[in-house]
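agent> fetching stored inputs for the pyridoxal-5'-phosphate docking request
agent> found them:
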Amino acid sequence: MSGSAFEKSSRLAKVELSEIVRIAEAARAAKAAGADVIALGTGEPDFDTPDHVKDAAARAAAEGKTKYTPTAGTAELRAAVAEKCKRENGFDAAAENVCVTMGAKQALFNSYMVSLEPGEQVIFAAPFWTSYPDQVRLANGEPIMPLCGVDSGFKITPEALEAAITPKTRWVLLNSPSNPAGAVYSRAELEALAEVLRAHPRIWVSSDEIYEHLVFDGGEHVSFRVAAPDLADRTLTVLGPSKSYAMTGWRIGYAVGPLPLIKAMTAVQGQSTSGACSISQAAALASLTGPQQLLAERRAVFARRRDLVAERLNAAKGIACPRPEGAFYALPSCEGVYGATAKNGKRIENDADFCYALIDEVGVATVPGRAFGAPGRFRISTAYSDAELEEACRRIAAATDAWLG
Ligand SMILES: Cc1ncc(COP(=O)(O)O)c(C=O)c1O
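agent> prediction call returned; pasting tokens
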């Protein structure tokens, strides 16, 4: 050895290998050993990016739009996002209030990089999307994750929010519709949270609305900005085409917020990644300015799959599946199976035991709820064909039937 071994920085030491990665590896290993595995772990639509969006990208490449763009995004795309906020979300934003990022993920990450002092806190409800806590830790902050169970629809209540606030609270992060619970906050619920926040002027609100177009049963998506217009000067809205237009691989997201925050986020972006991919920005522009009919069509498909999964799993022994109101996941409870013994002789004592037993015995890969701060549950993505979902539910029911006798 020519020098000392690599040592992780303290900020990285707090970040663990994701449970999703571990379960994906277990599914891959089972497949490699010849098992027929249905993996329901993925968080992206199974649909393809619309053709008119791909065509716009091809045109952009052919026309030589292949150079650096302004760090905060092309003028056309920023203007289109501002226009979209007015048209779809119902709040006013100027193009200068928009920063185009590399996915919604980077918008959130940049917001912490520019705002958190070491040890400052970000509050969000558990169950949460797995990246939330680690992004905060990477920015030397502390995630505060009150458990919000099935009784509150997996949503944070004003009381739970008030109880979680400390002098170190910097952000409250809301996610509606949510991953992994499919929770959708009503206007009244957002207004009640805003009322709590009015008494805490130092706290900023980050509203992750990446699943905004996937609200079922005629329900309405309400942007936090619309529920609390008076808090606009401390609200960041996070949007993007990844889920709505099946564009996860294009890596585009939109941060919409007050100018000083957007300028600071743009500065961080300028020294880390520079502006998002020029071709992807042309594609995203086409997604916003092109036909929108596909949004309703895809929503109907996801609603149908939600119904299928909830119905089949609720009929399975030991499983209870609340009906998600949005997004494309279900988060059933598996606690009814605890105490049962799997075929390999191992007792199922928690959600991870349950998920690994499902892979081993019936070749269905789901994600243990503990990865999302929801122990006792497991997450199924419904971004798969009806046939795959049917078969996966049939296998899960067969497994729990065998375990519970
Ligand atoms: C709640 C939530 N926010 C943000 C993202 C990230 O989206 P993007 O792919 O645009 O970075 C995801 C992706 O799974 C998500 O589930």
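agent> quick read of the result: The first strand starts at residue 38 and ends at 39.
agent> awaiting further instructions
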